[in-house]
């Protein structure tokens, strides 16, 4: 495959003439080994392009390693008309992969903060979530990282993050128990210290 110089638009690696990331031979071979180990023949026609596809899919699932989610919080808005109440983005769907089985984690998040003088564009909260979700994760760390990033960069009075997700490693394999949801939360600042504020934000999130 011929290549053009320079990274693709996500900065994940050199791309070929078809505009797709070039997958090194050793990565493809690793996937062929896994196919063989699973019981199939990587040389059969339907599987010939699979190693390349799988590798590119994993680059996409793990796009978060190529970014610092904090960059999304650098553009602030100071003219907020004196608004100093809760800002909440809820029901944000996300996908991640568990670091134990590399199996999908599919869920939704609610992210809230209590602004101190300034706010950010609301889409940026979802961008921060995806930046940390697109890595190999456990749900507890994902929750903590999203909250800490907002806390460190916006310096708000409070941050609250609640994540609810299903883990495919519990449904498609292992204990094989569909329908169970894991819930994690991280409260910081006012939401941690003040019970009334915590109750208010949880109620706005739909957990009241
Ligand atoms: N706390 C936590 N556990 C997770 C998460 N994702 C997956 N797990 C769990 O990680 C554990 C790994 O347990 P191990 O005993 O090392 O692996 P295993 O033999 O594959 O475990 P089973 O899934 O019970 O078959 C399992 O209990 C998973 O359910 C997560 O985000 N947070
Ligand atoms: Zn798992």
TrEMBL record:
All copies of domain GTP cyclohydrolase I, residue ranges: 28-205
GO BP of this protein: one-carbon metabolic process; tetrahydrobiopterin biosynthetic process; tetrahydrofolate biosynthetic process
GO MF annotations, alphabetized: GTP binding; GTP cyclohydrolase I activity; zinc ion binding
PROSITE patterns reported in the protein's UniProt record: GTP_CYCLOHYDROL_1_1, GTP_CYCLOHYDROL_1_2
Key words of the record: GTP-binding, Hydrolase, Metal-binding, Nucleotide-binding, One-carbon metabolism, Zinc
A GO-annotated cellular component: cytoplasm
SUPFAM superfamilies: Tetrahydrobiopterin biosynthesis enzymes-like
Binding locations of Zn(2+): 98, 101, 169
Pathway linked to the protein: Cofactor biosynthesis; 7,8-dihydroneopterin triphosphate biosynthesis; 7,8-dihydroneopterin triphosphate from GTP: step 1/1
Catalysis: reaction(s): GTP + H2O = 7,8-dihydroneopterin 3'-triphosphate + formate + H(+)
EC number: 3.5.4.16
InterPro entries named among the record's database cross-references: GTP-CH-I_C/QueF, GTP-CH-I_N, GTP_CycHdrlase_I, GTP_CycHdrlase_I_CS, GTP_CycHdrlase_I_dom
Pfam family, one: GTP_cyclohydroI
SUBUNIT field: Toroid-shaped homodecamer, composed of two pentamers of five dimers.
NCBIfam families: folE, PRK09347.1-2, PRK09347.1-3
Family: Belongs to the GTP cyclohydrolase I family.
PANTHER family: GTP CYCLOHYDROLASE 1, GTP CYCLOHYDROLASE I
The protein's name in its UniProt record: GTP cyclohydrolase 1
Gene that encodes the chain: folE
